[in-house]
Amino acid sequence: MAKEIKSQDNKKIKYIKSLKQKKFRAKEEIYILEGIKPVLEAIRDKAEIKDVFVSETFFKEELKKYVIPLELNVVDDKIFNSITDTVNSQGIICTIKANLKSIEEITPFGRYIFLDGLADPGNMGGIIRGVDAFNFDGIIIGPNSVDVLNEKVVRSTMGSILRVNIYNLKSYEEVKTLKKLKFRFIVTSLVDESKNPKDLDLKNNIIIVIGNEANGVSNEMKSYASNYLKIPMEGRAESLNANIAASILMYESLRQRG
């Protein structure tokens, strides 16, 4: 079944445009997912899809290649281009209810990544892919980090955002809830007492803290540190990309678990 949309004033078009604003995404807890592969993954993973939008061109030329068992909003190509965030869109997007959880719902003794002021959407998206790939229990978005429902973040997760538990913190005060659950906070830092990841127990009951790309982990999160670690490097680079560092540490945790 399909419905045609021929006007910019259509209420669904206005709604999806409003999702370009962080405050509206946060209020609705809904985000935009773009591309045929992510949309098909969302259907397969039984995500809470609100609406599916396809361009007229996609509807006429591409739809026959896929099975999309949902009502489609067929949008005039020019209007569709006004709601897409990519230069060469595949012609399909959907709106989805986000899998956001409160910190009170966190599973004790699990393995989590904490993003402390992470600024780059690509880094955040890549780390979410790592959480999915290395089977961590979730990702905690600390204060001052980029919005996890940002379209660039969502796109760079390559569909992993559909499967990862996301916990949004409004303030550092909420970290106390995690501390009460006896999590060990493993903080990435270059301080003298930092250890090699191989020398720390990363199997369970850990929250690995990844800091801001330019300034590192905040003093607030350092105050909760159970251990500091740094990844040994033999080359001349001064530091690693946050996404790469997080992936190395998640792999080490997986390796230790056997």
Protein described:
With 258 residues, the protein is of the alpha/beta class. The chain folds into two domains: 2-97, Ribosomal protein L30/S12 (60s Ribosomal Protein L30, Chain: A, 2-Layer Sandwich), CATH 3.30.1330.30; 100-257, Alpha/beta knot (3-Layer(aba) Sandwich). It is 32% helix and 21% strand. The chain has ten helices and twelve strands. The protein has helices spanning 11-18, 22-28, 36-44, 56-61, 77-83, 121-133, 151-156, 175-180, 219-222, 242-257, and strands at residues 2-5, 30-34, 49-55, 72-75, 92-97, 100-101, 111-116, 138-141, 166-168, 184-188, 206-211, 227-229. The strands form two sheets. It has a seven-stranded parallel beta sheet with strand order 6-9-8-7-11-10-12, with helices on one face. Helix 7 (151-156) links the parallel strand 8 (138-141) and strand 9. Helix 6 (121-133) runs parallel beside helix 10. The longest helix has 16 residues, at 242-257. The radius of gyration is 20 Å and the shape is elongated. The termini are far apart. The mean pLDDT is 94.
Summed over residues and divided by their number, the pLDDT gives a mean of 94
Walk across the major sheet and give the strand order: 6-9-8-7-11-10-12
Rg to the nearest angstrom?
20 Å
Q: Number of helical segments?
A: 10
The biggest beta sheet reads: 7 strands, parallel
CATH topology of the largest domain: Alpha/beta knot
Which class of the largest domain in CATH terms?
A: Alpha Beta
Structural classification: alpha/beta
Head-to-tail CA distance between termini = 49 Å
Shape: elongated
Unreliable sequence segments? none
Q: What is the share of helical residues?
A: 25-40%
